[in-house]
Amino acid sequence: MSAVAVVRDIERPSILFGPPAAPKRATGPTLEQMMSGTWSELARRASAACPMCGGRLQARWGAGPSPVAGRCEDCGTELT
Question: What phi and psi, each to the nearest 5 degrees, are found at residue 45?
Fold first, then answer.
């Protein structure tokens, strides 16, 4: 076992360093908020910003008045 592996296995004594830091929470929109915003934009304008690359997401239409899917012109991502 290397010295680096041994150091990783040693626990950090909280009396010297305090309690471990809490993990940071992500800020910004949730996945649900981002996807519902993308669908709303597709329904209003027939195009939206791709959530993966920021390119142009084009609506694909079915028989009804709302888009049934979208496909990015740049990266090929499909929303269904």
Answer: -115, -5
**What DSSP string describes 3-59?**
HHHHHHHS---HHHH-SPPPPPPP-S--HHHHHHHHHHHHHHHSEEE-TTTS-EEEE
| Residue found under tokens 């079915």 | 62
| CA dist list (Å): 28 to 3, 32, 36 | 40, 12, 14
Give the span between the Cα atoms of 40 and 47, in whole angstroms: 10
pLDDT tens, position by position, 24-73: 887 888 999 999 999 999 999 999 999 999 999 999 999 988 899 999 99
Cα 32 to Cα 28, 35, 58: the distances in Å are 12, 5, 20
- Measured CA to CA, the distance from residue 37 to residue 45 in angstroms comes to 12
Q: By C-alpha distance, which of 69, 65, 49, 66 is closest to 57?
A: 49
